[in-house]
Amino acid sequence: MTQDPASFATVRPSLILDTVGFEPGQRIFAVGETVGATFLVRSGDALLWAQGTPREAALVFHEGQIFGGEMLGEDPKARFHAEAGPSGCQLVRVERSQITQRLSAGDALIRTVLRLLAENSGRMSARTVALAAEVTQLAADQGALAATIEEARAQEERAAGNAVRLAAENAQLAELIEKRSAAGRRPATP
Predict the structure, then answer these.
(1) Backbone phi and psi for residue 48, each to the nearest 5 degrees, phi listed first
(2) What is the 3-state secondary structure (H, E, C) of the chain?
(3) Are 80 and 55 in contact (CB under 8 A)?
(4) pLDDT tens column, 99-157
(5) 187 phi and psi angles, rounded to 5 deg
(6) Most exposed residue of 35, 84, 122, 128, measured as fewest CB within 10 angstroms of its CB?
(7) What's phi and psi for 105, nearest 5 deg?
């Protein structure tokens, strides 16, 4: 008996694959942990960032986007930190074992194409996270430079104020010297 292909469209992923819920800010995985899965964001947002990169530089994955593509690669260890976004998230978790079982019975061409897609996706994700880290560092550098410029302006203003004060003090001193000199030049009174 064959099933009508159109009926496959009515099957929700949650009936076939695990759906996992995460509270806001809850860790999904960390760098170096064995994940062995890929995640599809069903609802909410997931945040990913590289080791050594501030969390504020995280990439945001929205509904329908996929991350954690290490499952088809050789190394199932996570290369990024991942946590649920501010409103939490629901993720469909596709285990590496589920994919490898189905691929082992499948066509070699399909296995090769999927492996290449997974490798390319992993490289693109890594590069995207690295670029986000660079942008964050550039923003931090720009902020530090702006603070340095502001401090230099403040020092310049203080120096200008000091110069005006010194000029006024020099004028008073010159006036005092002139008065004392004039007092010393007066003829003596009999």
Answers:
(1) -125, 140
(2) CCCCHHHHHHCCHHHHCEEEEECCCCEEECCCCECCEEEEEEEEEEEEEECCCCHHHCEEECCCCEECHHHHCCCCECCEEEEEEEEEEEEEEEEHHHHHHHHHCCCHHHHHHHHHHHHHHHHHHHHHHHHHHHHHHHHHHHHHHHHHHHHHHHHHHHHHHHHHHHHHHHHHHHHHHHHHHHHHHCCCCC
(3) no
(4) 667 667 666 777 677 667 766 666 666 676 677 777 777 777 888 888 888 888 889 88
(5) -65, 145
(6) 128
(7) -90, -5
Break the chain into its structural domains and give their ranges: 12-129
Q: How far is residue 131's CA from residue 151's CA, in Å, rounded to a whole number?
A: 30
The rounded distance, in Å, linking the Cα atoms of 167 and 183 is 24
Which residue type occupies 106? Answer: G
CATH number of 12-129: 2.60.120.10
What residues are paired with 73 via a beta bridge?
Answer: none
Q: Phi/psi of residue 106, each to 5°?
A: -95, 180
Is 0.85 surpassed by the pTM of this model? no
State the sign of the Cα–Cα–Cα–Cα dihedral 110, 112, 115, 118: negative
**Which are the contacts of 18, defined by CB distance < 8 A and separation ≥ 6?**
92, 93, 95
Q: What confidence category does residue 14 fall into, taking pLDDT thresholds of 50, 70 and 90? A: very low
